[in-house]
Amino acid sequence: MEYVDLHLHTTASDGSFAPAEVVAMAKQAGYTAIAITDHDNTGGLPEAAEAGARLGVEVVPGIELSTEYAGLEVHILGYLIDPGAESLSDLLETALSHREERNTRICQVLQAAGVDVSMEELREKFPGAVLGRPHIGLVMAEKGYVSDVKQAFREYLGRGAKCYVPKVNMPMERAIRRILDAGGLPVLAHPYQYELGDAGLRTLIETARGYGIVGMECVYSKYDGAQTGALLALCGEYGLAPTGGSDFHGASKPNITVGTTKAPYGYLEGLKELKQSR
Known about the structure:
Blueprint: E1 3-8, H1 19-29, E2 33-36, H2 45-55, E3 58-69, E4 72-79, H3 86-112, H4 119-125, H5 133-142, H6 149-157, E5 170-171, H7 172-181, E6 185-188, H8 197-211, E7 215-220, H9 225-238, E8 241-245, E9 263-264, H10 265-277
Parallel strand pairs: 1-2, 2-3, 3-5, 6-7, 7-8
Antiparallel strand pairs: 1-9, 3-4, 4-6
């Protein structure tokens, strides 16, 4: 059976491995195809595509956008996008500007709390990356303020922690529309992560479907067979295409490796058929 992982991050956002390295890992793990879905950024796609062509791994151009829904941060994956589409460029520029402002503020709050992490240090250590809290957590761990990134989030960076800074996200409807305008297919990422309960999840699905999502991530590194089965049933009920991926990042999520999650290649075929029919 052929397998895919449609949710992978690289150093182009908050992953710890370069795009070509991630493709090589996927080849080693036996994947037929993968999707690179960096946060608010498409910069890693050319390198990944070149590595995929060289190694015989199909690389799907993707992205993951952080959006606002009813006061929650909800992630929308975009597949088979045109990375150079004008509909994405200004959206990503705004998202990156908001990230930069937030990162600067987080560093200021950390320094006031006695934790010496600066933007200059982050840029030097992670050149070209779309910086975020995982990078800050890694530096904190390296400098001995915490034992690992999980502790950094738990005590300093996560929601409710002492140095938490809220994030400004784009409206979900806008993100979905821009993915569609870029020729892509918008998909709801890791739906159980929002902890909405059955009724709340259904409302989210119905709202996102009304905005234009065509699929939902059902196979995920943190979901067991029962959860996957329930999500697949919801896909059938709402007419959505199922997808699956690990959400691999590397050092910031060390328990998730390339190979952790294997979804059937048929999921990608379903997305391709949807794109052809549009």
